[in-house]
Automatic annotation (TrEMBL):
Pfam families: RmlD_sub_bind. Belongs to the dTDP-4-dehydrorhamnose reductase family. Residues 4-278 form the RmlD-like substrate binding domain. Keywords: NADP, Oxidoreductase. Pathway: Carbohydrate biosynthesis; dTDP-L-rhamnose biosynthesis. The keyword Lyase does not apply. Coiled coil: none annotated. Its EC number is 1.1.1.133. This is dTDP-4-dehydrorhamnose reductase. GO terms for molecular function: dTDP-4-dehydrorhamnose reductase activity. Catalyzes the reduction of dTDP-6-deoxy-L-lyxo-4-hexulose to yield dTDP-L-rhamnose.
């Protein structure tokens, strides 16, 4: 396989992806933000030209959802303009680019899983900046650009809901968890494996929804975490999202459809419960 270049190398998804690629003894260039700031277009162009990758995976992103509400221009510089700069560098080289995105490009008012071609309507600044990045990649790389929308991502590296709930299990008698937001918990390890599969097959370019199958509320996810830890799930109490107001509104319904994988000859990603059981995120005392 071609040389890989992975941006955002210190992040949760990149950690899983780099582990899999190195286990396969692939040629990989891993770049942290200190190595490559996507806001520097000249640096992006020069680094890609220097390493001449065949596959670029853009794991670099502004992911502070609430902070983006008051720093949208800064978030756009990374999620939108930075993605465009990387796509343009890939276009010059003829490299394939895989760009993870988010369920936050939808408004969350739906009641059926969002199809890949469903109209987008983000309700917060983070979603708007990620949508700008999607469009930049697809416009610049109509033949070699892939957008993989994911959601509710968790992994062994970095902070996330699963590790947070697991950490609180031993210190709180009860936990109040939101029960009126639905989504698809997705293990970063499964997403990383799907990225590799996609690069190997190189199917029709465009948008693919890369979330684990099934659906859950945050409350249901927290109960499953407690169960796997051998704790009493009854200690988790359901509450409304109004109990936890945040600067950035969240979509109430973030379930994504997976029909497009059939064009790639791949099945949808597995059920979220199975993935959670097999992930290395949960470690019981």
């Amino acid at each position: 396989m071609s040389r890989w270049l992975v941006t955002g190398a210190s992040g949760m998804l990149a950690a899983e992806l780099l582990g899999l690629l190195r286990a396969r003894e692939e040629s990989v260039v891993a770049l942290t933000r200190d190595d490559l700031d996507l806001r520097d277009e000249r640096a992006v162009r020069d680094v890609v030209a220097e390493h001449r990758p065949g596959v670029v995976v853009n794991c670099a992103a502004w992911t502070a959802v609430d902070d983006a509400e008051t720093h949208e221009d800064e978030a756009l510089a990374v999620n939108g303009h930075g993605a465009r700069a990387l796509a343009e560098a890939c276009e010059r080289l003829g490299a394939l680019m895989i760009h993870p995105s988010t369920d936050y490009v939808f408004d969350g008012t739906g009641a059926e899983p969002y199809a890949e071609d469903a109209p987008t309507s983000p309700v917060n600044a983070y979603g708007r900046t990620k949508l700008a990045g999607e469009r930049a990649v697809l416009d610049t790389l109509p033949h070699t650009g892939y957008v993989l929308r994911t959601a509710w991502l968790y992994g062994a590296a970095g902070g996330n809901f699963v590790s947070t709930i697991a950490g609180l299990e031993g210190s709180r008698p009860t936990l109040d968890v939101v029960d009126d937001q639905l989504g698809q918990p997705t293990w970063a390890g499964d997403l990383a494996a799907r990225i590799i599969e996609l690069a190997e097959i190189a199917p029709e370019p465009g948008i693919y929804h890369a979330t684990c199958s099934g659906q859950a509320s945050w409350y249901e996810l927290a109960r499953e975490i407690f169960t796997l830890l051998g704790a009493d799930p009854g200690r988790i109490r359901p509450v409304s999202s109004t109990e936890f107001p945040r600067p950035a509104p969240r979509p109430a319904y973030s379930v994504l459809g997976h029909d497009r994988w059939a064009t790639a000859g791949l099945p949808p990603m597995r059920d979220w419960r199975e993935a959670l059981r097999e992930s290395k995120v949960l470690v019981s005392d």
